[in-house]
Structures are given as structure tokens and as C-alpha cells.
Amino acid sequence: MIVISPSVLAADFADLASEVKKVELAGAEYLHLDVMDGIFVPNISFGAPVISALRKHTAAVFDVHLMITEPIRYIDDFLKAGADIITIHYESCDDPLSVARYIRSKGARAAVSIKPKTPAEVLFPMLKELDMVLVMTVEPGFGGQKLIPETIEKVRQLREYANAEGIEIDIEVDGGVGLDNLATLTEAGANVIVAGSSIFKATDPQKAVAEMKAMAE
Ligand code: DX5
Ligand code: ZN
Fold first, then answer.
1. Atom 6 (ligand 1): residue with closest C-alpha?
2. Could you confirm whether 34 is annotated as catalytic?
3. Ligand 1 pocket, 6 CB below 6 A?
4. For ligand 1, what atom is nearest to the CA of residue 32?
5. Does 99 sit in the ligand 1 pocket, CB within 6 Å?
6. Between 20 and 30 A from 90 (CA), which of 18, 66, 119, 178?
7. pLDDT below 70 — which residues of the chain?
8. Residue 174 catalytic?
9. Three-class SS string for 73-126?
10. What sign does the dihedral 100-73-137-116 (CA atoms) show?
11. How confident is the model over 24-78, as pLDDT tens digits?
């Protein structure tokens, strides 16, 4: 099944609760929450208190994308805030697999993400122990960028490797995703689709989710 995960980074921060309601009503199963620390990426977004405040307003699966250095320091905070899935970056610490194991030991789903210049192979040895991998299709840090086409091949490599090894895993893509490239990404093997600008900056975000879902199916 293909899942849409709207990224609230592109939503109206002064009205997050109603923004989130809109996409949930439109059928988005997940909510993508981008946490940035100004060190791992050159931007600061929001942290656990905002996620925890949103938790009361929606039943969507909270897909928390941590773009922070040494994420182990904050895993407990994000679990407490209501994260269902926690994604950490391969490049953000020395031992991403041990952080993923910790996340799983607490009952949440664990994912590891790679930046555009990191090869897909680095994830192969840990695939069996992950619930999801996130292939960044732009350099992390900002919404509204254009998808880097070369990253699509990494989605294909990961899906082929997982299939060959008999591993069932979600593959998420994030950055510059919209109706124009959705089919290429799902065909390559992605099944969790993050979209920020193409949903929240659309004139009708609800319609944007519905169109993406229709195309994905
Ligand atoms: C970028 C974030 C993305 C971002 C995507 O670092 O990880 O989730 O919100 O935004 P769009 O869809 O606008 O590229
Ligand atoms: Zn993200």
C-alpha cells in the first residue's frame, strides 16, 4: 500500500491544528514532522513540545524525521511526545543501528535516512532490523526544493536488495515530491510518500492529498 505523509514544515505554523485536520480528512494516513537542530542541517524548525501539542488533534501516524546530531539524546522525548515512527540520519551519529534498536525496544518503528550523496549500500547490512528507510530526494534542511533525479536510482537499489533478501520494508521518499514525479518514485519502489509544498502550498490542500492518493493507487 502507498501511504501519503504530508510534511507540516510547509503548513501554516500559526494554525497547525487545523492544517493537520485538513490533510487527515483528505485521507493522509501519516503526518511527517521535520525536526531540525541548526547543526545537522542549516535550519531550525520545531521540537518535541510542538509534536506533543499536535498529538491531541489527530489520530494520524506520527512520522518524525530527526535531522539532528547524536539523535540518541532525544529519542525518549520524541517517544513521549507521541512519535509512532522515528527516522534518524545515517550521517548523524557513529552507530545508527544501535539507535534504531533502541527506538524499536521502546515499541516504536525505526527508520534510517540517507542524504542524497550517501550511497544506498550503507543501509543494506541493517535493513533486516529496520521498519523503514528514508531516501532523501533533496538535501535536507528546507522545504520547497526540486527533487534530485539521481536519488531515484537509490530507491530502486534498496527495493531490489530488499526483494532479493526477502525483507519487507517501507521505503520513504522526501523532498520535491509532487504529482509530476510520484509515479516514477512508486515504480522505483517507494511506498511512503512525503509531500510538503505540493500539499500545503496548494490552493486546496485536501484536493492535493486526494489527487496524490488517486495517482498512487
Ligand atoms: C526537508 C524535509 C522535508 C520537507 C519536504 O529537509 O525533510 O520533509 O518538508 O518539503 P517539500 O515537499 O516541500 O520538498
Ligand atoms: Zn522530512
1. 140
2. yes
3. no
4. 8
5. no
6. 178
7. none
8. yes
9. HHHHHHHHHCCCEEEEEHHHCCCHHHHHHHHHHCCCEEEEEECCCCCHHHHHHH
10. negative
11. 999 999 999 999 999 999 999 999 999 999 999 999 999 999 999 999 999 999 9
